[in-house]
Design goal:
- The chain is α+β, with helices and mostly antiparallel strands.
- It folds into three domains: 2-57, no CATH class; 93-176, K homology (KH) domain (GMP Synthetase, Chain A, domain 3, 2-Layer Sandwich); 180-251, R3H-like domain (Ribosomal Protein S8, Chain: A, domain 1).
- Helices cover 37% and strands 22% of the residues.
- The chain has eight helices and nine strands.
- The strands form three sheets. The protein has a three-stranded antiparallel sheet. A three-stranded mixed sheet has the order 4-5-6, covered by helices on one side.
- Strand 8 (227-232) and strand 9 form a beta hairpin.
- The longest helix is centred in the C-terminal third of the chain and has 23 residues, at 178-200.
Length: 252
């Protein structure tokens, strides 16, 4: 089922980040609706924070059957002796294994339907987040332009696996180490553009990016001298602006 929360912050990105931290989700697991834009006001008077509505997919709550009424025993029963755990109990399938099996079944079927010669390799970390690496040949079609196909595969997997689960699990899907490579290239791009912005004292608007990629740009430049970043436009054409920070220069 779909649920949502509303969150506020000094900027739109700050409001979104606050909601993600509250939900314990990643940006690509939610959709965001801007309710109110941030206003700086005049000399701090009349300012108001940005307000967003973050919608996410929550697992359906299982119905709890009513406990049957047990008749009182005619005679008190003797307590069963406490037994030590057996090897059979230790090897019982855990919830983690069940989730991994659901991920594998869904992705195997999806990849076969797409005609892709690939298989999922699944690992889970200590926080219970699942990392899926698609292994095979010629995986470029599964990645797509700027990772768009890979993002779609991840979103479908997250939605399918989390249906009817009692708790939501995080799932990250990657192929050929694309996400780490993309993040490194975005950091290099951000610093290169920031250098030009400072040198020429002119703002630069980057190409449209998804929320995660914009977050990488913001994070990479959050401590860069004389530079600030913000986002403009609406999805899916929302862009990050790397701007020359005149306020910092005036304070010197």
């Amino acid at each position: 089922m779909l649920k949502w929360i509303e969150s506020t912050g000094k900027t739109e990105d700050a409001a979104i980040q606050a909601a993600l931290e509250q939900l314990g989700l990643d940006r690509d697991e939610v959709t965001v609706e801007l309710l109110e834009r941030a206003k700086s006001g005049f000399l701090g008077i009349g300012s108001c924070p940005a307000k967003v509505r973050v919608t996410y997919e929550a697992p359906d709550e299982p119905e709890v059957p009513a406990a049957p009424v047990q008749p009182a025993p005619a005679e008190p029963e003797q307590a069963a002796p406490v037994q030590e755990p057996t090897a059979v109990q230790e090897s019982a399938p855990a919830q983690d294994d069940e989730v991994a099996q659901r991920i594998e079944r869904f992705l195997t079927g999806l990849l076969a339907h797409m005609g892709a010669q690939a298989k999922p390799v699944i690992t889970v970390d200590e926080r219970g987040s699942y990392a899926v690496e698609l292994v095979g040949d010629r995986l470029g079609a599964l990645i797509g332009r700027r990772g768009e196909t890979l993002d779609a595969i991840q979103q479908l997997t997250v939605y399918s696996v989390n249906r009817n689960l009692s708790h939501r699990v995080r799932i990250h899907v990657d192929a050929e180490g694309y996400r780490a490579k993309r993040e490194e290239s975005l950091v290099r791009l951000a610093r290169k553009v920031a250098g030009k912005v400072v040198r020429y004292r002119r703002n630069v608007t980057l190409e449209p990016m998804n929320a995660y990629e914009r977050h990488v740009i913001h994070t990479a430049l959050q401590d860069y001298p004389d530079v600030t970043t913000y986002s403009v436009g609406t999805e899916p054409n929302r862009r990050t602006v790397v701007a020359y920070s005149r306020e910092q220069v005036q304070k010197r």
